[in-house]
Fold these 4 entries.
Entry 1:
Amino acid sequence: MTALLLLYLCTDATRTNCQMLPTQYWQGSNAYDQCMAAIPRLTNALTTQNRQRHEFVCEIQTDTAHPAEHQAQPAFIHQSFRM
């Protein structure tokens, strides 16, 4: 198994305009656990403002998937129109 640590860089706190960057990967039977263990330390290293805009995510990859081909999808889409 391969687990990728992905960093979603977003332009604002709504996380509607994000770019996904693979930052690290682990291989082996406990790859996902190692990835998840890294997230709290990395998140704590971000400033408060960046914690609201950016997000670390662990994703399990199969042998056929290519992470560079993935497109970042917003986790939450919210639009507000005011007059």
Note: The chain has a mean pLDDT of 80.
Entry 2:
Amino acid sequence: MQDELQALANNNTWVLTDLPPGKTAISCRWVYKVKHHSDGSIERFKARLVAKGYNQLKGLDFLDTFAPVAKLTTLRMLLALATSQHWIIKQLDVNNAFLHGGLHEEVYMKLPPGFHSPHPSKVCKLQCSLYGLKQAGRQWYAKLSSFLLSNNYTCSSADHSLFLNHTNQSLTVILVYVDDVMLMGNNAQEITRITTLLHSHFRIKNLGDLTYFLGFEIARNSTGLHLSQRKYTLDLLHETCMLNSAPTPTPMAQTSRLQPDGHLLDDNAASSFRRLIGRLIYLTNTRPDIAFAVNNLINKFVSAPTTSHQQVAHRILCYLKGTPGQGLFFHTNTYLHLKAYSDSDWASCPSTRKSVTGFSIYLGHSLKSWKSKKQQTISRSSSEAEYRALASTACEIQWLTYILEDFKLPFTLPATLYCDNHSAIQIASNQVYHERTKHIEIDCHLIREKINHGLIKLLPISSSSQATDIFTKPLPSQTFHIHHSKLGMKNIYSPLEGG
């Protein structure tokens, strides 16, 4: 707490003054946290003074609040490119990041608990943003981005948390996620220079080579890079008392068709269920094998979960128990070419009869982006459902292409897109099925435009080889593991002993 107060004083975060008439001072509180290393050992004890921003009034204490953070698909793309191009990867942390942001509004705060002042009747007039303020994240991003832009970095139009610096044959990349910064590139001198500049302005903590970032564990050697959430998974199993459970071969039973049956959970159990689903959503960033099972619970039953839905969530945990260290593997020797698989399960929802869109996109041999999501509208045929899935995949391929173009690296076009529905391929390639397609929204015909412009080459594939089935339906154990092997996942840890 003393260190935090000293940092606030050094940064001139506030000045003591009398509260002007008509103004209201918001409260603040201390928040304590124990920081851990990736192996679970204690790193340090942390105290943070946080303003109670929920007492702020819009239009008076704040205006805009949005602040961009890095997309996790961008993170996976960066790690894959850094692995294939043999770039240096460093991690930085900004001390008291939000304190560096300025304030455009007059915000007054009560004296912090434990802060001794000779004038206890005065209040703090904030000169810098403070943790907890609604505009704090926005002000910090504005400060950092303006600094990077002034030092010859450009902001990516595809992801506004991505900054790049191109000079001759040199490339340096900065990815920002609030106060966590990932720095990579092929020029060690530029990495050292920008690190020194950041430290002189923001007091940067250099954490060395990237090993643990946003809960992701990174292990790198000469063959490639492994990205997993092993500690996150084990903590989740420990908190839900599932460490002693028997592992299951699949995250969801093949015969499972979730219905609003069973007894409704009470408020405490329902709250725990929603918290569990939220944590499982974050786990899908390195575990695409549970994406369909988690999405199936999200779409229908978060608002009113029952005991049967809780059992499905517990089965996912039992599946994770068998392979907590499973993660994505990015190969060193890979080629820069996008390859995608698109699929749909027509009218699979028994209550709404909506279809499920699934796609998986690879850069070389490494999986970069995937989706399992229920479609917004009801499709009249399997061809229409597949066509909508193709449109969603085309949008993701276009966005990934923009990311690759920012790096100015040579990559192969067109991207290859595989679909197992010949009728959908014909609709996308030709403009003759007017009677069948006139009710489909215009935006779905985006796939035709991308094919004509040479961005995508659409090819057929047999249903038995369709790798995206794992994102659209529950599969039997043998089929599940066949498709699982195509996701490029590895477990570099020894298995848990068990029972």
Note: The radius of gyration is 25 Å.
Entry 3:
Amino acid sequence: MLSLAAKIKAEENGVYFKIVEKSFLFGGSTISDEKADTLLSCSQTCARRASCKSANFISSQRTCSLLSEEQTNHPRNLLKREGSFYLEKVDFAGLLGTTQSSAVHSCKTLRRRSPSSPSGVYWIDPDGGSQENAFKAYCDMETEGGGWTLVWSYTFVDYNNFANPSNAITPRPNWAVDPNVNVPISTTPPLNETDYNSINFSLWRQLGRQVLIKSNINNWLICLPGTESLVDWLEGNVSCQIVKYVTDTCKDKLAPGKFSPSQGYGPMFYTSTYFGSTYYYFEGYTLQHWPTHDPCGQNSAKQEKNVVNPHGNIFIRDAVN
């Protein structure tokens, strides 16, 4: 049983406790016997002592016995006693994000607080406060330092006729674009890179302003905010770099340096003129234009061909180390 009161205070010290009610550890090596009015104050006392691995708190006597050993060293010595509590330090960092009550702000927060956490699905709570509205999201903990929260996974309506107006990305996030956009809208967090869904766009900015664009038909980009960012939804400069070449085509080309939120039916990353120098155009309309994924930045159909399960992803992270 985990005491909520002890957990809250322990978070401030980076220490967490497992609490067993009506129990005490007999035979553990005692460091010292301290006075403690509450279970919480006993946990605080142990948290401040690196040598303290566990403690016995006896509420009626208001005593807190600090121990240098844990129950694992005395598996049969955890005895029952009314009014007693056994406290044991645990590595809660390894559990961060695994339950709704341990939700973290973002995947970058998880990376910072638990660097060994692997890529996978975790609970996050971008708007902070109560964790009642926390939700599961996929974290990339490997690409370019990790800490990326997957906000959107998409595929294509007509990949085999890529440059045809019949093609578009699907689904799209609930961003503000031309009302003629006619692909499905998603506000369901994607749980992997081929789970085609999107986190509510209003939450993207709360996760950060750095953008990672992955695709298995175009080069991967990381775009740092300049005057603007995708999450700001305003046209301006960005600083992009290619972090993975998916194709050998146009490997001499520079990455895009501008972002536009919507030239009609979706956002784009380009260099100088909208459609003449486009690398990515996330177009969601099947009657006009097409969803550019061009490694040459020429708004041409030079994306990878004949790819099984063609798709793309956008991840977000903040810049805090």
Note: Helices lie at 4-13, 39-47, 107-113, 204-207.
Entry 4:
Amino acid sequence: MDMVRYERFGAVGDGVTDDMEAIARAHEFANEHGLPVQADEGATYYIGGRNKTAVIRTDTDWGTARFIIDDTAVSNYRANIFVVRSSLKSFTPKGVSALKKNQSWIDVSLPGTCLISVTDSDVKRYIRYGLNRNKGSAQTDVFIADKDGRVDMRAPIIWNFDRCTFSRFDAHQGVANATIRHSTLGHAGINAIGFGTFTVEDSTVYGRSFINLRPDYGSTWHGDFIIRNCVFVPSCGRPASGCLFSGSHSGQHDFGYTCYMPERITIDTLRIDDTNHGRNYGGRPFFPISTRSSKTTLTKRNFRTSRPGRSS
């Protein structure tokens, strides 16, 4: 059997006999064996009010067949008649930081043509008015993109998503002129080394420090930091030691380059939410980056660090 037909499972298709049980069993068999489903040309399938759902996981062609859905005696009005589900596992595409209305391409490689769902819980749409008024639903878009990231414009992106939530931002081997906007960074926070201007705007950070200059690469930043209109929730709100900037440099390793301290740090409105810390809590240190070695005797340093510049 290379094709599953409803009639093989007892469907009549005369528009009178209830064929729902046969339709559901046909799809169950097709799903189990990975076979496509084909309706008979010109058939009329009657679906009554029983609580039954046909799950579709394989290619299904209804052709010229018709369906009569009789809801005069429905036993469960919340039940679906058909549910289309993929046999493939869902996944979260990486590298998409924002979406714009009618965007025709996303900068991501996919394993094949995918149905992508995007939600921004901070934005509410379709706020209903009248007798059944509600507070709206989270802004959601559903669109199709091929393996190269091209969006099927027959069902375009209809909203702007400026929404991103990450577990972390982590630049292992250097970044230049990085910008984070309108984002939420989880418990791992922001980790970076690099050059130029690093800007964080309108964002919330839940890490142990607001920005961690990675000690395993010399805690180096040759340039400026700008923090504007942000919220820092140290250690996800748990009582813990921490600081605004963190890092360390023992002086015992040659990283292959000169290590620098930031030249200028500009902070324009930063709220630190540390309300859950105990009575002995003394506040957050600003920049306690250490250049001390844990060894008693220091060897000659093979690097140069610039001293911190100005902060404002």
Note: The CA atoms of residues 123 and 139 lie 6 Å apart.
